[in-house]
Structures
1.
Amino acid sequence: MKKFSREAITPEPTPLIDITFLLLTFFLVSTMFRQEEKALNLNLPEASNFDTGVSKNSPLTVELTNKKLVVNGTSTTLDKCDDLLKALENKKQTVEVRIDKTVSYEKVIKLLDKLKKYELTNLNLVTSTKKP
């Protein structure tokens, strides 16, 4: 009679390495498609009946909260933003305006007056889309 010896069963490392690299590749590629983070964490008003029309390559973004104003990632105030707006050469470019819903109406009007003063009239008021 023949004696059978028991061998220890060990998992094969090659498929595990392949799966690890596939997962790594997936996570690297999926993080490339994330939208860039904006400068301020805004609580945008919701809109449900129209397209927000956010352009992916907008050259100018303006974000306003009760305490801060950020123009293209540069933190400033309403009084000091004249230099940034005056320096813009292309007056026809799209301006994405992101305003927190708690900002007073007076501040919004002051910001819109500043943009109009420097002939930046191609505005895109960004809202968050309402979840159905």
Note: The longest strand covers residues 60-64.
2.
Amino acid sequence: MSLLAALSALGVGAFNARELGRRRPIMRNAKRAEKALDRAFDQRVDELRPGTSAAYGLEYIQPPDKGNALANLHYDLQHGKDAASSSSPLQEPGIKINPNADRVYLAHEMGHLASQKTDIGHLVASLRANPKLKNALLGAMVTVPGVAAALEAGDDDMDTSLAMATLASAPTLVDEMLASKNGLAIMDTAGMRASLGQRGKLATGLLSYLAAPLIAGAAGNIVGNQFDADPSGL
């Protein structure tokens, strides 16, 4: 199970890196859709919290061409977050995006800023951005699954370990789902309803956040089972 999770994470990471690291613009690229999406973003914010400012900064980040596909992929795997990101509630509103990437990624980042205008969205994003909470969650991803496996006799406890590890990432997962929900709404308003392929890209992005806790859960399970209680010895 741990090997399968690792291979899945690698595949998801490579797909996201390729899509976000475009050196040449695709037809439905972010830069071309910027103005229409920006107008739709203003409308979405007004729907969520009437009278709230929708101002934000936009910075285009185009990945450098390293000369060959393998070198580009290696760079993108290391710097993928630079190609699509948005500010937390602790910062001035802003978005960084690769202008060549699919417009669905720009809409998703706009979705992050839009969701922060709601009470729930602001809370979730704030929890995600809190360094102390982040460290606590990262620790829980390793220790909690292991404890669960150690307390549950036998080797049939993988589901429990994976569930507990995923729960430790809840703020991040909820924040990403809210961003996708609002991003898709923004695209609808802009007259750019997301295609099945674009929705698949958002789903793959979400899977990239699930991959880490899946691997952590599987690893914690294996370690925990080394200390399993033997019912016959009690």
Note: The chain has one domain: 2-229.
